[in-house]
Amino acid sequence: MSEYRDADQETAWRSDISAGLARRRARENRFRLAGRSAVVFATLMLAALLASLFLLASSAFVRHELTLETRLSALATTDGSSPIADFTAAVRGDITDALPDIGDSLDAARDLSLMVPRLAIVAEAERQAAVLKTRGRAAPVTIPISDDIDLYLKGRSSAEFVREANAFVLTPSFAGAATLRVPPSGAGLLDRARAETEDGVLTSETPSLLFETDQGVWKGTAVSENNLMIEPLLGGLVGAPDTLVVSGRLRLLWTPETERVFSDRQAAMARWLQEDGLIRQGLNLRFFTGTDSTYPELAGILAALVGSLLTMVVTASLAVPIGIMAAVYLEEFARDGRLTRFIELNINNLAAVPSIIFGLLGVAVLLNLADLPRSAPLVGGLVLALLTLPTIIISARAALRTVPMDHRNAALAIGATRVQVVADHVLPLAMPGILTGSIIGLARALGETAPLLLIGMVAFVVEVPSGIRDEATTLPVLIFNWSKGAERAWEPLTAAAVVVLLALLLAINAFAVYLRNRLEQR
Amino acid sequence: MDKEQTGVEWISGVIQSLGEMPFGWLSFVLLSGMGIAAFTTARIRAFELSAAAKRPLRAHPNTHAVFALLACLLPIVAALLVLSFVDGPIERRALVAELPARLSELPMVDLDRYLDGLDRASVSGPGQQVDVFDRAATDRLLELRGEVRAFGYLFALLAGAAGIFFALRIQTVDAPVRRYVERGVEIILQASAGLAVLVTLGILASLLVESFRFFSTVSPISFLFGLEWNAQSGRSFGAVPLFFGTLVVAVVAMCLAIPVGLFSAIYLSEYARPSTRRLIKPALEVLAGIPTVVYGFFAIVFMAPLVQWAATAINALPFIPDNFLAAQPSSALAAGLVLGIMTIPYISSLVDDVLTAVPQEYRQAGYALGSTQSELIRNILFPVALPGISAAILLAVSRAVGETMIVVMAAGQRPHITADVTSDMTTVTAQIVSLLTADTAFDSATTLSAFALGAALFATTLFFNQAALSVVRRMDLRHV
Questions:
Q1: Interface contact B452, partner A, CB < 8 A
Q2: Contact, B157 vs B165, CB < 8 A?
Q3: What are phi and psi of A252, to 5 degrees?
Q4: Is B305 in the A-facing interface, judged by CB distances under 8 Å?
């Protein structure tokens, strides 16, 4: 055999082939790995998206609230009208009563007044006045506290380290200041703070150290190995003796005071009130019952939800019937001609037109030509109806195509007209698919934002819209507006609104699938 | 004399209340009233005809009734549609003519907003209005609306009556009424299908008309080739920076979406076990169902900080000059990456469909020749599916170019040309939004430029879609 003349050549061939096989196998593995990593990457991105949104949103569904009673109820029983200025003063008075002496500096007064937003007090005062009129006595007052403090109490503004001990040695010096000898258990905190300072001097640009006892809160001014120079922030020692041993709590706020939106004093006040049980965490119901506001702690999604609903009513009542009729025409009646092909071409093109172009159409035709009101669900619904029409037509046609030809032939054979064939035989069979497709198309429209921005649905809407000509906004647009908010508290709120939107879409899609399964079984 | 006076008052009272009634309810009452009248008269007439001729009709009496119903309602619906489109402009123009100069000479935008306010008050009741003059204006608006509607509804009523009359004239024992009804229903269905054409025409007309108005003040050459965009001030309208921003964002998106989408489709259709496929495919579909505004928010809170952090880290490397990358808080790169994530499922699901559509014989032939799975995919399936794959990519590009919310929220607002993707850029769609959400008069070149941009965007996406369609058509001819 000529091929095997040379044993060396044979080995060379064999090694060539096995090298080639190894190379091919390696290439195969690389290819498979590329595919697998692409899938992993895509799912990881989905996970990152959902996780970051849910993590952000989780804090927005609860909120810290201030519950007050004493002076307010007194005020309420003396005077039924309860003017807002008195009410504000009473709220501030109640807070001051609960706190140790805050002193009478301007800073302290400012810090106190920023704890509770004025707008929240106004709304609560109005509610109290109404309650008083109907029931004759005031209800317990719960007021949302300022969003910055709320974020701080949720631990989202600054890293915080706390050590509790009962062997702090306090040696008063002059003017309320004192030297604090910190027990070994708290020395770690001091070290950590000292590492951030120059020569141990604590300023507003270094982390803050607060010392809390049941008599007041002190603020650290200088830190050495295990001593802390402190001066009073809230309350303090009245007629203090020489040296005393106290139990207390050392709190290290990592973000320097200049880099956060609340002061050391506010942090101390908030913790104090929380300790007393005046500040409690409650469900953030206002998020669902409130409307848009310039204050994140007062903002809610109700108006946007209603706006979305009204817009969807307009969209559904136009796009679904017209879409079904168009699909029926194209599938059941149209003869294959130039006109039909032209219509089909149009529908396919429209389905791929960017949504913002429909917004431009709305501006030019509906707002400027037909003079319909801006920012109204009527116009928004019309634009979204045009936008979803091609999608609904395409999915309805697909559903109609699944009905077997035999049904049509059988009906025609016993003398039914074409309209009767469609109405009595084809449509009932195709309905599950048509409805599912329509609902999914409407879910898309529910998440649509860009065209609504152009027709003015970005307006700041405080009142819940009551009709389709009212000024309104929708949930996605609200998300867009909130995402531009400068204050940090908008971020969790926006994420919460996103979660609501996603939950709505999930529910709608699940309903569509359920509907299909159920109707198909019958 | 006295009697005449009260008569006039009564009529004006009717007109006033006609203006106050909601359009939807009025139309509903009109339609159902006329409908019932048409249906019953035609039905009774059919029975009478049959009794007189002493033999059954050629069509069922109910068909006669439906015929009359269609003949009556179609003209009414047409009349009401026309009315609903023209009543607003007519009322407003009439009202503006009567307004004092301090209002009627306001800029268009403010006047429109004022009229919108009156419009709302006229629907929801004047309770909100404090100003006495505004109340009077609202009342006058209602009166004008009543007059317009009185004409409109009278016309619709007459049209409906004419329809009934026509139907009754047609009715005979031997009239092929069933065929007429079939034809009528078909015309209605055809009209709804034709609406799609109407929408396309509307888009084309509005984009072209407004663009022509824009190009009467700004030359198309300087729009298409100008390097400076400063539309807010109304001075320079060179759209190249916007086209460039759009291109950069789309390229970044495609660099991410094409490999990931392609490889996940290949993996899912060729390698993955059915159980994995059942799990991953819906996950990718979830990615496709998430609203774009959510992606935009994700870009703001996750991707943009990540990009900025990475760019700062690169800047801090020893051999890199200071401020080599802009490291802006919003960047074209962040927007492009998120846009890419959004387009992954479009590519992967389309490519998946194309790959599964390749006939099984190709695979068997490949294996028979001794190729490995990846060689089969690369050398046989890929070339066969190439038209479908390129169509998927073209559609994804079209979507990336037209996407709005992500770039509005994450790409920034600065029109400039730079190779640094970590700096903020603006795109065509982002500019359209910022131009039309700003408070400017509609007639200004600033607002009109949004339509010119829209026309450019429409042409681009149309081109990509058509290219995708023609590629797919070629594939169909070859393999199916």
A1: no
A2: no
A3: -105, 115
A4: no
Beta bridge pairs of residue A279 = A66
Q: Is the ipTM of this complex over 0.85?
A: yes
Q: A282-304, pLDDT tens digit by residue?
A: 888 888 888 888 888 888 899 99
Q: How confident is the model at residue A75 (pLDDT cuts 50, 70, 90)?
A: low
| pLDDT over 70 percentage in chain B | 94
Distance between A35 CA and the closest CA of chain B, angstroms: 5
Residue B366 confidence (pLDDT) above 60: yes
Considering chain B, what percentage of its residues have pLDDT values greater than 90? 45
At residue B257, φ and ψ (nearest 5 deg) are -75, -35
Q: Check residue A138 and report its DSSP letter.
A: P
For chain A, the average pLDDT equals 85
3-state secondary structure of A102: coil
**SS3 category, A211:** strand
Query: Does residue B234 carry a pLDDT above 80?
Result: no
Say if residue A441's pLDDT is above 80.
yes
Residue given tokens 């829209």 in the structure block: B454
Nearest CB to A467: which of B124, B186, B264?
B124
Nearest CA to CA, how far is B265 from chain A (Å)? 8
Q: For all residues of chain B together, what is the average pLDDT?
A: 87
Return the bridge partners of A141, or none. Answer: A68
B335 touches chain A (CB under 8 A): no
Residues in chain A closer than 8 A to B280 (CB atoms): 39, 43
Interface test with B, best of A56, A483, A484, A509 (most B CBs within 10 A): A483
Which amino acid belongs to residue A354? Answer: P
Selected residue of A28, A36, A39 to mutate for chain B interface (largest B Cβ count, 10 A): A39
Distance from CA of B360 to the nearest CA of A (A): 21
Partners of A41 on chain B (C-beta within 8 Å) are 260
CA angle B213, B218, B223 (to 5 degrees): 110
Most confident of A182-191, A267-276, B186-195: B186-195
| A42 to B192: CB separation less than 8 angstroms, yes or no | no
| Chain B, nearest residue to A354 by Cα | B402
Instruction: With residue A247 as reference, give the H or E element that holds it.
Output: strand A244-253
Contacts of residue A474, defined as CB under 8 A and 6 or more positions apart, other chains included, come to A304, A307, A308, A311, A380, A446, A449, A452, A457
Partner residue facing A360 (CB), from B206, B262, B461:
B206
CA–CA dist A248, A251 (Å, integer): 10
Give B244 to chain A, closest Cα distance, Å: 19
pLDDT band at A330 (very low <50, low <70, confident <90, very high): very high
Write the residue in B348, B433, B458 that is nearest to A357 by C-beta.
B458
Tokens coding A210: 């607060």
- A65: closest CA of chain B, how far (Å): 27
The reply to whether A494 touches chain B by the CB within 8 Å rule is yes
As a whole number of angstroms, the distance between CA B456 and CA A58 comes to: 42
- Return d(Cα B298, Cα B335) in angstroms, integer: 10
Cross-chain Cβ contact A31/B292 below 8 Å: no
φ/ψ of B110, rounded to 5, equals: -65, -40
